[in-house]
Task: inverse folding
C-alpha cells in the first residue's frame, strides 16, 4: 500500500497500540498533524509548552509501563522538549519523541526553525535517528519503540524532515526488529545467582537496597516475595518507592541524603548488600570512600552492565533483567530447604529496631502554622495510600517521599535523576490520562509549579480532575535550607516574591481554588478536594506552610551515611 | 595505563560523534582516534587510544558497548597485538639538510614521497614511539609540518575482531 510519510507515522503509532500522543503542532509537522486530524485510533493531547509534552509522555510511561509518545515541531519545539527527554533519560523511562525537521535539502542551511536535534539530544537519549529516506521511516519507528522499551529503557528521538512526511512509499510495518549491534541481556548468570543466594542465606546482617529498576522491570511482586521469605530488611530508593510495601514491618524507609536513620545505618553496617536495579547514586550512598570503610559483600543485579562497579566495587555482579533473576532465585529457594533465619538474624533486627525507635521522621506539630509533613501524612490518609502521587523537585519532593507510604509500584512519579523542577503538573496529567478514574495528586512548591503552570489550561481542556497540593512556604525551600546550613543564612535569591493569588489563578483557568492557612483545616480541606463534589474538577490547594521548616534527616553533601543529622541533633 | 581499544560500528551518519561525545561527556581521556570503513561497507572500524585506571577503562569499555551503533569491541591491550601509525613529515631539504634528511629517512625506513626544491615529504610508519624517535632525531628547525593518523591496531594470530 502506497502511503505518504505522514500517513506512515500515524500507521506506525497505531501498530504500536499508542493510546496518547502528547504534542504541539508547528510548520515542520503540519503534514503529520493533518493525518492526526483524520484519525481517531489514538488521542492527541495538546499541551501548552513542549516541555510538558515530553514530561506527560514520560509520566504515562512511568504509570503504565508502556512507551510514552511525544510529538513536537522542529527548532524551538524540539529544544523545548529536551528537558523532558533528559529527565526521562536519567530515570531510564521508555519514551519515543518524534520531532519535525526542516526539509532534507534545507538541512544545514540555517533554515527557519532548524536545529540539529540529533546533535542536541545525543548525550541525553538512549538512541536517536534522523530519517532521510521515507523507505526507512517505518522500520526506524519500529526500532525506536523496541530500543526505548527493551534492556535498560530510555528515550529515543526520531527526527523527521518535512519532505519525508510528504513523500510516498510502500508501507509495511516490520513485525520484528533485529539489530546486530544491540542485544540486551535477559537472563542472569546461573552460577552467579546461586552464589548470591548462598551469600544471602549465610549473611548475619543482610540488607536489600532496591531501586527504580525494580519498578521499571515490573519486579516488585517477586522482590516482595523474596524479601519476605528470607526475612530481610529492605530499603527502596527515591526511584524505587513502592517496589516493596512501605507499610510493611521489613521496610525501613528510603536511604540517602534525606533517608531514614535505620535505612542509612543498615546500608552502612550490613555484611551482605543485595542491590537490585539501583546504581549507588551520590544522593544514595553519600561519600563512596566513607561507604567503603565498612567491609561488606555486595551483590548487584542490573540489566545494564555499565551500572555495575561504576561508583562502588561489586563482589557478585549479575547482569540480567531484575524480574528474571529474582524469579530464578525464588525457584532455587523452592528447590532447597525452607530457610529459617529468624534466629541468626535476631541480633540484626534488634539493631534495626533500635535505630527505628529513634523515630527520625518525627516533627514538631504546631497549632498555628501548617507543617508540610502533616499535609502529606493527611493526604496519605485521605487517599487511603492509593493515589498516584507526582512531585516536583525540592523540599516538598522529599517530604512526599518520606511521608506518603507507597505500597504499590508505579504510584510515585518524580524526577529522581535529573531533578527537574516543573515536572509535577505534567506528570499528573500523564498519570491521569492513563488512569482517568484514579486519584492523582501533584505535591508541589510555589517555585516548581510556576515552571509549568500553563498546563492548567491543558487540564481544563481535557477535564483532568488532578488535585494540586501546593506546599507554599514562599521560599525555594531546598535552596533556602542549604543556605541556612552551609551559607550562614545568606538567602541569596531563594525568597519567592510577588507570588500570584493561586486561588484566583486556578479559578481563572476554570478550576477550583482553595487556600488553607490553619493546621486545623488541613484534613477537612483535603476531604473536600477529594470528595464527591470535586470528583470531576481540578482542585488547586494552596497550603500556606511553615517557611522555616527543614527536611530531616540529612546526610550533608560529601559526607558518609552514618554522619547523618537528625532534627533533634540541632 | 594506556589502552588501545578497537571497535566495529555501524557505518552510519553520526556514529563517530556518538563515540567522541561519550568521551567528552564522561571526561575520559582520548589520545587518538582513527576510523574508516572496513571491507564490509556497512561497518566502520575505529581504533581508540585512551588511558585511565582499570576502573575507568572498564567503564569506557562498558559505555562503548552500550552505544547502540557499536557492534563489537575488543580491548587490544588485553592480549598480544600489533599497532602502527602513519606519519607524513615535510622537512626542509636545502643545503646540508638535503642529504641529512634523506639519510635519516632511510635509517627509519621512511620513504620520500614528494620532493621539491626546498623540501621533502617523508612517509613513516611504525609504533607511536618510533615516530616520536624520528622527530627527536632530526633537527627541530628542519620540520615544516607533520601529520599523524593516530594508532591503528590489530590482534596477533587468532585474536580476530569480526562480525
Result:
Amino acid at each position: 500500500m502506497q502511503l505518504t510519510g505522514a500517513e506512515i507515522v500515524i500507521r506506525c503509532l497505531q501498530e504500536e497500540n499508542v493510546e496518547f500522543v502528547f504534542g504541539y503542532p508547528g510548520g515542520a509537522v503540519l503534514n503529520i498533524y493533518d493525518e492526526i486530524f483524520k484519525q481517531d485510533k489514538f488521542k492527541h493531547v495538546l499541551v501548552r509548552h513542549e516541555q510538558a509534552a515530553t514530561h506527560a509522555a514520560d509520566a504515562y510511561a512511568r504509570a503504565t509501563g508502556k512507551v510514552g509518545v511525544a510529538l513536537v515541531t522542529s527548532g524551538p519545539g524540539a529544544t523545548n522538549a529536551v528537558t523532558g527527554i533528559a529527565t526521562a533519560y536519567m530515570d531510564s523511562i521508555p519514551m519515543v519523541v518524534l520531532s519535525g525537521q526542516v526539509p532534507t535539502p534545507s538541512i544545514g542551511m540555517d533554515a527557519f526553525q532548524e536545529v540539529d536535534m540529533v546533535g542536541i539530544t545525543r548525550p541525553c537519549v538512549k538512541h536517536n535517528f534522523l530519517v532521510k529516506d521515507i523507505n526507512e521511516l517505518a522500520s526506524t519507528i519500529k526500532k525506536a519503540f523496541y530500543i526505548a522499551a527493551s534492556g535498560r529503557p530510555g528515550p529515543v528521538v526520531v527526527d523527521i524532515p518535512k519532505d519525508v512526511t510528504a513523500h510516498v512509499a510502500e508501507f509495511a510495518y516490520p513485525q520484528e526488529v533485529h539489530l546486530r549491534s544491540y542485544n540486551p541481556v535477559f537472563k542472569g548468570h546461573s552460577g552467579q545467582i546461586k552464589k548470591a543466594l548462598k551469600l544471602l542465606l549465610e549473611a548475619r546482617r543482610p540488607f536489600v537496597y532496591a531501586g527504580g529498576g525494580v519498578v521499571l522491570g515490573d519486579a516488585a511482586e517477586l522482590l516482595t516475595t523474596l524479601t519476605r521469605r528470607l526475612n530481610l530488611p529492605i530499603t527502596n530508593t527515591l526511584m524505587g518507592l513502592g517496589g516493596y510495601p512501605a507499610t510493611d514491618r521489613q521496610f525501613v524507609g528510603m536511604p540517602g541524603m534525606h533517608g531514614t536513620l535505620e535505612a542509612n545505618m543498615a546500608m552502612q553496617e550490613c555484611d551482605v548488600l543485595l542491590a537490585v536495579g539501583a546504581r549507588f547514586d551520590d544522593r544514595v550512598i553519600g561519600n563512596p570512600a566513607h561507604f567503603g570503610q565498612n567491609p561488606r559483600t555486595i551483590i548487584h543485579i542490573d540489566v545494564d552492565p555499565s551500572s555495575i562497579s561504576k561508583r562502588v566495587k561489586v563482589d557478585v555482579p549479575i547482569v540480567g533483567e531484575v524480574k528474571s533473576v529474582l524469579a530464578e532465585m525464588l525457584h532455587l529457594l523452592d528447590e532447597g530447604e525452607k530457610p529459617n533465619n529468624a534466629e541468626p538474624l535476631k541480633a540484626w533486627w534488634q539493631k534495626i529496631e533500635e535505630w527505628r525507635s529513634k523515630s527520625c521522621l518525627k516533627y514538631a506539630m504546631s497549632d498555628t502554622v501548617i507543617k508540610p509533613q502533616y499535609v502529606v501524612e493527611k493526604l496519605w490518609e485521605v487517599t487511603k495510600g492509593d493515589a498516584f502521587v507526582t512531585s516536583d523537585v525540592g523540599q516538598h519532593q522529599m517530604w512526599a517521599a518520606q511521608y506518603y507510604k507507597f505500597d504499590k509500584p508505579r504510584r510515585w512519579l518524580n524526577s529522581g535523576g535529573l531533578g527537574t523542577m516543573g515536572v509535577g503538573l505534567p506528570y499528573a496529567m500523564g498519570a491521569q490520562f492513563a488512569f482517568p478514574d484514579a486519584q492523582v495528586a501533584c505535591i508541589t512548591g510555589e517555585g516548581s509549579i510556576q515552571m509549568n503552570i500553563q498546563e492548567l489550561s491543558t487540564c481544563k481542556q481535557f477535564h483532568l480532575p488532578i488535585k494540586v497540593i501546593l506546599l507554599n512556604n514562599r521560599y525555594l525551600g531546598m535552596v533556602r535550607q542549604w543556605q541556612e546550613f552551609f551559607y550562614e543564612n545568606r538567602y541569596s535569591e531563594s525568597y519567592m516574591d510577588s507570588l500570584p493569588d493561586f486561588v484566583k489563578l486556578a479559578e481563572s483557568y476554570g478550576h477550583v481554588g482553595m487556600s488553607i492557612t490553619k493546621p486545623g483545616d488541613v484534613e477537612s480541606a483535603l476531604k473536600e478536594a477529594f470528595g464527591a463534589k470535586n470528583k470531576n474538577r481540578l482542585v488547586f490547594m494552596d497550603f500556606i506552610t511553615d517557611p522555616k521548616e527543614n527536611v530531616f534527616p540529612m546526610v550533608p553533601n560529601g559526607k558518609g551515611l552514618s554522619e547523618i543529622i537528625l532534627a533533634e541533633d540541632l | 595505563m594506556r589502552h588501545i581499544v578497537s571497535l566495529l560500528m555501524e557505518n552510519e551518519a553520526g556514529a563517530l560523534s556518538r563515540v567522541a561525545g561519550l568521551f567528552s561527556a564522561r571526561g575520559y581521556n582520548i589520545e587518538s582516534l582513527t576510523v574508516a570503513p572496513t571491507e564490509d561497507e556497512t561497518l566502520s572500524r575505529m581504533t581508540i587510544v585512551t588511558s585511565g585506571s582499570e576502573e575507568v577503562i572498564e567503564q569506557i569499555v562498558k559505555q562503548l558497548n552500550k552505544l547502540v551503533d557499536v557492534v563489537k569491541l575488543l580491548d587490544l591491550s588485553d592480549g598480544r597485538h600489533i599497532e602502527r601509525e602513519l606519519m607524513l613529515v615535510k622537512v626542509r631539504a636545502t643545503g646540508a639538510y638535503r642529504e641529512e634528511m634523506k639519510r635519516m629517512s632511510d635509517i627509519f625506513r621512511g620513504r620520500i614521497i614528494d620532493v621539491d626544491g626546498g623540501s621533502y615529504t617523508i612517509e613513516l610508519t611504525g609504533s607511536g614511539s618510533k615516530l616520536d624517535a624520528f622527530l627527536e632525531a632530526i633537527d627541530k628547525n628542519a620540520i615544516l609540518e607533520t601529520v599523524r593518523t593516530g594508532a591503528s591496531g590489530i590482534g596477533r594470530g587468532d585474536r580476530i575482531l569480526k562480525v
